[in-house]
Design goal:
Belongs to the carbohydrate kinase PfkB family. This is 1-phosphofructokinase family hexose kinase. Keywords: ATP-binding, Kinase, Nucleotide-binding, Transferase. It contains 10 helices and 15 strands. The chain has helices at 38-48, 61-72, 114-128, 148-158, 169-177, 187-194, 199-208, 247-260, 265-281, 290-300, and strands at residues 2-6, 10-17, 30-36, 53-59, 77-79, 82-83, 89-96, 102-106, 133-137, 163-166, 182-183, 213-217, 223-227, 230-235, 302-305. Strands 1, 4, 5, 6, 9, 10, 11, 12, 13, 14 and 15 form an 11-stranded mixed sheet that branches. Strands 3-2-7-8 form a 4-stranded mixed sheet. The structure holds 1-O-phosphono-beta-D-fructofuranose. The site of 1-O-phosphono-beta-D-fructofuranose (F1X) has 17 residues, from β2, α1, β8 and α8. 1-O-phosphono-beta-D-fructofuranose (F1X) binds at residues 8, 10, 12, 36-38, 41, 91, 104, 106, 138-139, 245-246, 248-249, 286.
């Protein structure tokens, strides 16, 4: 069993428009709605790979109800979301059909009361018993303390559960000090965290600040892994075009599944890159194209060792 935490769950709404233009009114040609927030995306991909997953975090209001309803039909996913009085947020992705570019608008999320945050922390401790790994994913809703992830990392480590942290900004900075096993920042998040725009150097700096392993996602160039066991780059065969929403979450699912299956790093990275690219190729944001995934895993992804000590 794997646990994913999404404190700021979302109802992800994707609009397709012929062309997105500022100041203009648009006719939406297609609308899709699905349960979102990074940890829920990670959970769906893990379940599709055959893992049993429990999801927790907060859900409330009508949107929270829609999110929970949407999870009921997903085999392998158990809903352990904690109720909150405020309404779960919506996020809007607007896809420009002409260019394929996506513009993302994320609401802040519900205000979480101190009693609700305490209830979550109690539930989290109970859920950690017996899980093989936990992923802490995404932004924090208002009211949740900025050091929340640091606390959740500490509790997981005390319980002996490997912990992956996928967030940004101050919550990431504070979370690092609690020494997570793995972080998966993108190049911008890593630069913001460390002040270095050179991914190798920035990843090493993030390790010095507390992360055991750093897997930097470099967009179309794939992943850079800096770990105590070595350094690797993993890249898809060619530039993959499509909607990148959820591609990072699929990479997290690949890394986490590889961790609990005790795969060697190169295999974990190949899986993460193949899943990520197959998510970009899928027509619906946050889902992956299984045929493309298998094809990429078979021949497509190149994993190369990098020189230098980890
Ligand atoms: O606001 P956050 O929590 O950072 O990101 C939320 C979000 O944009 O990330 C996912 C894609 O990675 C979407 O499902 C989701 O709505």
């Amino acid at each position: 069993m794997i646990l994913t935490v999404t404190l700021n769950t979302a109802l992800d709404i994707t609009y397709r428009v012929p062309a997105l233009r500022p100041h203009a009114s648009h006719r939406v040609t297609e609308v899709t709605e699905r349960p979102g927030g990074k940890g829920l995306n990670v959970a769906r991909v893990l379940a599709a790979l055959g893992h049993e997953v429990t999801v927790t975090g907060f859900a409330g209001g009508t949107t929270g109800g829609v999110v929970r309803e949407g999870l009921t039909g997903v085999p392998g996913v158990t809903d352990a979301l904690v109720p909150v009085a405020g309404a779960t947020r919506r996020t809007i992705a607007v896809v420009d059909e002409r260019t394929g570019d996506t513009t993302q608008l994320n609401e802040p999320g519900p205000a979480v009361a101190p009693a609700e945050w305490n209830a979550f922390q109690e539930a989290y401790e109970d859920l950690l018993a017996g899980v093989a790994a936990v992923a802490l994913c995404g932004s924090l809703p208002p009211g949740v303390p900025v050091g929340a992830y640091a606390g959740l990392v500490r509790v997981a480590r005390a319980a002996g559960v490997p912990v992956l942290l996928d967030t940004s900004g101050e919550p990431l900075r504070r979370g690092l000090a609690a020494r997570p096993d793995l972080i998966k920042p993108n190049a911008d998040e890593l630069a913001e965290l460390t002040g270095s725009h050179e991914p190798q150097r920035a990843a090493q700096a993030a390790r010095r600040r507390g992360a055991r392993s750093v897997i930097a996602s470099l967009g179309p160039e794939g992943l850079l892994a800096v770990t105590p066991e070595g350094r690797w780059r993993a890249a898809p065969p060619a530039h993959v075009r499509g909607n990148p929403t959820g591609a990072g979450d699929s990479a997290v699912a690949g890394l986490l599944s590889g961790l609990v299956e005790h795969l060697p790093w190169p295999d974990r990275l190949a899986r993460a890159v193949a899943l990520s690219a197959a998510t970009v190729l899928a027509p619906v944001a946050g889902e992956f194209d299984r045929a493309a995934y298998e094809e990429l895993l078979g021949h497509g992804v190149a994993v190369t060792a990098e020189a230098g000590a980890a």
